[in-house]
Amino acid sequence: MSTVEKSFPVSWDQFHRDARALAWRLAGLRSDWKAIVCITRGGLVPAAIIAREIGTRLIETVCIASYHEYTEQGELKVLKEVAPFLLEDDGEGILIIDDLTDTGKTAGLVRAMLPKAHFATVYAKPKGRPLVDTFITEVSQDTWIFFPWDLGLTFQAPISKGTAG
Ligand SMILES: O=P(O)(O)OC[C@H]1O[C@H](OP(=O)(O)OP(=O)(O)O)[C@H](O)[C@@H]1O
Ligand code: HPA
Ligand SMILES: [Mg+2]
User: Fold this and answer.
1) Which residue of 63, 69, 100, 102 has the smallest Cβ count within 10 Å?
2) Which positions bind guanine (predicted)?
């Protein structure tokens, strides 16, 4: 996305709760998930939390880069594909995990690799939502989600003194 009007900062605590809420939903769908395929890098963090909750130890990565300059999305580049043995059965019983879906381009690309897999993200924006099977929180398309691994503690000016984010 390129027009960012609002920000949605997420703390580690909130992210852990939201990822755990996603794990509860996924655990309720089936108890024998065969493997998790996480989309790097953002999907690594929820995948670790979800894998612990649902007891999955087979965890694969699909490595994709697209957002090169902060909010500007460039061409999607697949840096590493999914291991061939996981492509059997078109991904039936496999969980694909990412931190969020925004335009849905990343989700569309990975869905094409594993058409029968279940795609889950912690957060979703409206354009990406139709490509995701399960998510926890939706934010508007003009909102940028700031993940805890991209944030640090900084001084905040009092609301009365300046512009509040
Ligand atoms: O729905 P889309 O518009 O395709 O965007 C969503 C993707 O963008 C971000 O990843 P990014 O490519 O920035 O890489 P990263 O996970 O390494 O930060 C995010 O983690 C999703 O994977
Ligand atoms: O809102 C977002 N936040 C962080 N990374 C992203 N990649 C696409 N959209 C976003
Ligand atoms: Mg990503």
Assistant:
1) 69
2) 102, 145
